[in-house]
Batch of 3 targets.
Target 1
Amino acid sequence: MKLMKTSAIVLAVFTVILPIVFFTWWAFKDQAVFGSEKFDQTRWIALSNTVQKDCRRGDMAYDLKSHILIRGAKKEAVMALLGRPSLEDANALEYDLGKCMHVYHALRIYFDQDSRLTHSQISSH
């Protein structure tokens, strides 16, 4: 009987701790995976033309998203800074980061109807 109570307590604690660990990792994963290098415009643009499939620009993506891309910036200014996007639609630009942690990632930058930056995110494909 005591073994069943102990097992139930261990299972309950594990059930509580596992989601906390997972969501903590999820909240900080961009910084952990992509946060190791400062943005370098020359290197960013040079790496856009490589055929390597590794995480060639991923290391700069977090710094770029967190410290360089400023809300309200004009779309033209963002394109002047980052070069030609991999994909462009009416409200967003997408820059390929390569294959990071076994998944292809991109930096998506969103704009409002006045072509002003609203937010950016690192997405996986």
Target 2
Amino acid sequence: MPRKKAKESIEKRLERAGLPRLLQPPPLDPTAPHQEYILKSGEKVFGATTYTKLLPKDLLEWVRGVTMRGKNYKEISKSAMLVGTCLHHHACRMITGVTTREELPVTNEEAEAVAVAMRSWNSWWRENKHDLTPIACEIQLVSENHKYGGTIDLVALQQGVVTLFDWKTSGKLHKDYWVQMSAYQRLWAESFPDFPIERVTLVKIGKKPKEEGHESETRPAHELDVHWDIFTKLLALGRALEATKL
């Protein structure tokens, strides 16, 4: 009986906060238009990752390495994005209880990476699902105050703590990911101020056979305040560049 009361309490909290129902995702369509974030006024705004990409990275060194191996870095980048998209789609299906099989639009090489990524994520899910009460999965939000958008992978109660989760299929957990997470945290806070994020967890999902598995890093939400300061400066820089067409 106490367990039932606790569940009812959570449902009432979600209803009071105005949170939408947890919905199963539609079939994956790689030809669908890219996600657009639109303000109530009808103005289109960029996603948070458009601004975090302005941070200095080792991208040029990566491009140089790929080119020296005789490969097309644009094709590799596009393929990596598709693998990441498939993994996120799979995660949302699992979280929302979809059991039907779905054919994914990938090449044989991409299929192998997707399969490894799915196994890696499934391992994380098996270890953590019993402690989680999913609240929102692949939820798309827009900030009217700061004029940007973002798609959050998962918000869930983890042992009673409101936690934001983000899956990363990159080779490592880069420090600048926390800037992105600070932007997502603020998106959520603006949309659901009565149900604030208390902590944030990054989960690295292996997509290569030698990297199969997962690792994660968790930080209290208040530690992301300094990263939010960085993000607001990136917002200003991005808009200045857009205004001058640089």
Target 3
Amino acid sequence: RMLLARRLVEAGVRLVTVDLRWWDFHKQGFDSQKRGFLPRWDLAYSAFVEDLEARGLLDSTLVVAWGEIGRTPQVNKDAGRDHWPYVMSAAFTGGGVKGGTVVGSSDAKGALPKDNRKTPQDVLATIYRHLGMDYKTSYMDHTGRPHVMLPEGNPIDELFS
């Protein structure tokens, strides 16, 4: 999947999504991650980023590693973690991102935002701006009713130098 993504970027595709279905850990989460997802993810993601850099594509390619939702701060009865919409993480690299930058934080339990809260809409605004899209643009539907592309959210400027 990462190799296909790199080939699409090389061909000029402006937005590529890589779906990694092997990372939803509601049961035996720690063991599943250690034996399955994490070694494969580490190898694939780092190779993808190194590949883009070696081909001179990393500076122009924004790479976002982002799940669909956060995870509960407590482990469930099946040694896994369930969906938790209050805190989640995203990792950005390439595309002008200043390496090593941390934006926002959670409380000590990872349950609630603590400092510099960002939303999924902020992540989308960051991606849209990178693509050169006006995320505040309105489009008219077939009845003439306007729909704002992204009604909420602002780019995460702290990520860039």
